[in-house]
Amino acid sequence: MNKVFYLAISAILFITACKEDELINQENGTPKIKAAPSYSVLIDEDITYAEGLSHNASSTTPFPTPLKLDVYHPDNNSANRPVFMFIHGGGFTGGTKSKPEIVEMANYYASRGWVFISVDYRTTEELGTIQGMTTGEVLSYYRGISPQEWTDTALQGAQTPSQVQQAIAMYLAQRDAKAALRWIVANCDTYNINKDFITVGGASAGAITTIALGISNQEDFRDEISISEDPTLPTTNLDESYVVRSMVYFWGSNVKLDVFEMVYGLNQYDRYDSSDPELFMGHGTAEDPLTPYEEALELQEIYDSLGIYNKLATLVAPNGNPAGHGAWNAVVDGKGLSELSLDFLVERQGLIVE
């Protein structure tokens, strides 16, 4: 009788251990995704991930404004999902997280088992009016919004008020994108996200922000302004940290790194190291003075020199001509941007495809 009892207990313990191992593997193992669209996509729109200081056309002092993101997630019961955070373009003067092409990409990924998060961030639209202001007045106007060193550099290097604001908006985009990443980590349990499989990508200004995010330290674009100057900082999940596994870059450039170098007197290329995230680039060769193809070649050369895996897909328009800026419908060997980037991420992250 005792022997039967102990055998039963052993069986229960064995089954329990197997279930615990199963749970551990499910929670911490490699995520599984689908090769084809397999799930309905649920959308949580306009979630506030943080606040940031802003101006409008008539304000004299900055005020808090909510920063929003949209979460696209699969209607399944997986407890182990990879995540892709996407940063829209717009030259740091505008743009939207709900751009139709981004929505299409979000559904492509989420229907296959990913969590796809599209973020908004502050642009020059949230920087009010500085026309006719003195240097001292501009510095005061943007106190708490931009570090004094950054504003100083913008004032010295720009020829028009709009250029000053665009340079400052580059800082805001970086600060806000990092806050969005920290929000993702803080809310990973809500969406069953495996934070070991974080991808960040973007197009144009979003790609510029992605590249700077990949090489910057956790404290960069976070600690340059004090909480006394910017009381919205505590809303940005300051205690969270993240590790970006892969980056996706569509027709970007290194311009923000040039500004970063000017502001802090650092050689931008010294910021790259062999631990930086792997990189997929989609960039066409059509003439583009804002984000030239040569910028992608330069990045590829840097990554190759450090032994970081990267891939450059030279985009072609549907008519066979070289693709240019904003080539959302571009193809390479019959594959569009979503398929090209997903193939890269699956291979390099070792995701299990069913």
Write structural notes for this entry.
This protein is 36% helix and 20% strand. The protein is an alpha/beta fold and 354 residues long. The chain has a single domain, classed as Alpha/Beta hydrolase fold, catalytic domain (Rossmann fold, 3-Layer(aba) Sandwich). The protein has an eight-stranded mixed sheet with strand order 2-3-5-4-6-7-8-9, with helices on both faces. Helix 4 (148-157) packs antiparallel against helix 5, helix 4 crosses helix 7 and helix 5 crosses helix 6.
Entry summary:
The protein has 354 residues and is α/β, with parallel strands linked by helices. It has helices at 2-28, 100-110, 135-141, 148-157, 161-186, 205-215, 255-264, 293-306, 337-349; strands at 32-33, 41-54, 63-74, 81-87, 115-119, 193-203, 246-250, 278-284, 310-315, 352-353.
